[in-house]
Amino acid sequence: MPMPQSNELTIPPVVGLLVIGPGDCIDLDRFARTGLTRDPFEFLVVPGFVPRTAAAAAASSFPGPDLPGVLPAPWEEPDTAFGHLLHALRSPAVTEAFGAKFGLSLTTDTLMVTLRARTRPRDGQIHTDSESKLVTALIYLNNDWADAGGRLRLLRGPGDIDDMIAEVPPEAGTLIAFRRSNRSWHGHKPYDGVRRAIMLNWMVDVASARRELRRHAVSSGVKRLFRV
Q: Cα(94)–Cα(185) distance, rounded to whole angstroms?
């Protein structure tokens, strides 16, 4: 898919940085330098994966601000800071970096990209993700987060939201990524309001990615119609 053209894009690529717009980048060096926690499941947290200025610019053009639930990311990326970030996240370089980090053979055609614009009080229930997912990554696009709710918790088991290994505030530019397993329990305390996130899921195969995207497209259409 072609990247939106811009006469302003004059900054040359920098080693370890994926340029996505004038002065904006994804810090793949920071990602590569961050080690995996392996017990009880593989994960890493990378504050600054997207620089705060780039994250703030992407947040300002984030789609669906009034819609809850999971929304499919637009396939045709808009010529905005959000669209540039989306284009970068879909690049082969990002998929290769995640594959190398988790020791998996990941491909761009199995990547599903979805969005969350806001969270409802019933969201955040403890779960592990479905078996059709190999790796899950969340990139948050919010300002400083003071609320106790809405902070993703990585858990030791399904029975207690307070029995956590780590807690991740959904602050601008922070990445949390994990390899899905039967022990990859996660969730968050209730929060009602705007909580922007881009979610990347590398699926087990292309058919699974397409099926899940179709499901989210139908669901988001219902949400737009009935505002549920």
A: 25
